[in-house]
């Protein structure tokens, strides 16, 4: 058996969809009218229809305060501002949890509790910037030492520069002059930077460029030049 995700009952599907789609940035995956699911598997279900599924003898009540939906964001302050501008009802403002994470809790239009917190990676980085060692951060947050180390190292890594180039063929060449091929092919940025044609992602499967990050269906090449791959 596989767990798929929560389904919450809502009074008005349009209002609930607007809240999760526009304020929390969730993308709709399937819309069946009375039942809408989002990427990530949260689903909202129209109350009247859900009642017909479970039977009239079971009352659907609001505000039990025994369940919440949990979201994380890289930018807690921006999320806070967006929710406030939309007039969302707060349970509490941003505050620090016992394990050091900053979170806020609000009600959705149907009084379900929604928690929005910073990522635990961001928490680790914040403590690292305050001068705590990895071991101290691990003790403070309860996160495993390996997680802390990874979060701090990722922070120091330069941002990826992956670009999508057209024309990756079977040999993932990208060095053949465009006037010698019949399909659209972007130039290799490494060749362009050095004004040569020697660099190739792969030739007959015998060489791979250190900037090569794979091929996407059907012929799009992922190139990380000028940042060498670290994984
Ligand atoms: S992966 Fe390497 S050879 Fe391929 S396009 Fe990028 S820089 Fe050029």
Can you give a write-up of this model?
The chain contains seven helices and eleven strands. The protein folds into three domains: about 5-120, Roll (2,3-Dihydroxybiphenyl 1,2-Dioxygenase, domain 1); about 120-155; about 165-225, no CATH class. α4 (about 120-130) packs across α6 and α5 packs across α6 (about 145-155). It has about 230 residues and is an alpha+beta fold. It binds iron/sulfur cluster (SF4).
Kindly name the structural category.
Answer: alpha+beta
Uncertain residue segments = none
How would the global form be characterised?
Answer: extended
Quick check: average pLDDT? 91
Distance separating the two termini:
32 Å
Bound ions, cofactors and other small molecules, one mention each: iron/sulfur cluster
Number of strands: 11
| CATH homologous superfamily title of the largest domain | 2,3-Dihydroxybiphenyl 1,2-Dioxygenase, domain 1
Q: Please state the CA-atom Rg, rounded to the nearest Å.
A: 25 Å
- Number of discrete helical segments: 7
Strand arrangement, largest sheet?
1-4-3-2
**CATH hierarchy: architecture of the largest domain:** Roll
> What is the oligomer described by this structure?
single chain
Residue share in helices? 25-40%
- β-strand percent reads 15-25%
Per the CATH scheme, the topology name of the largest domain is 2,3-Dihydroxybiphenyl 1,2-Dioxygenase, domain 1
Number of domains: 3
Major sheet: 4 strands, mixed
- For this structure, what is the CATH class of the largest domain? Alpha Beta
In short:
This protein has 231 residues and is of the alpha+beta class. It folds into three domains: 7-118, 2,3-Dihydroxybiphenyl 1,2-Dioxygenase, domain 1 (Roll), CATH 3.10.180; 120-156; 163-223, no CATH class.
């Amino acid at each position: 058996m596989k767990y798929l995700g929560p389904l919450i009952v809502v009074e008005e599907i349009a209002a609930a969809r607007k809240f999760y789609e526009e304020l929390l940035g969730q993308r709709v995956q399937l819309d069946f009218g009375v039942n809408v699911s989002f990427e990530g598997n949260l689903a909202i279900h129209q109350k009247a229809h859900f009642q017909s599924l479970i039977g009239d003898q079971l009352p659907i009540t609001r505000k039990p305060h025994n369940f919440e939906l949990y979201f994380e964001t890289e930018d807690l302050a921006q999320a806070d501002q967006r929710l406030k501008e939309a007039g969302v009802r707060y349970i509490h403002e941003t505050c620090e949890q016992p394990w050091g994470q900053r979170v806020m809790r609000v009600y959705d239009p149907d009084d379900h509790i929604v928690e929005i917190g910073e990522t635990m990676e961001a928490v680790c980085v914040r403590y690292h910037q305050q001068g705590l060692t990895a071991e101290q951060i691990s003790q403070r947050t309860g996160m495993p030492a390996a997680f802390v180390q990874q979060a701090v190292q990722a922070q120091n890594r330069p941002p990826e520069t992956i670009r999508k180039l057209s024309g990756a063929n079977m040999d993932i060449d990208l060095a053949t002059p465009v006037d010698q091929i019949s399909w659209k092919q972007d130039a290799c940025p490494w060749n362009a930077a050095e004004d040569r044609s020697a660099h190739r992602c792969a030739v007959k499967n015998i060489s791979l460029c250190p900037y090569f990050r794979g091929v996407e269906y059907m012929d799009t090449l992922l190139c990380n030049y000028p940042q060498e791959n670290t994984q």
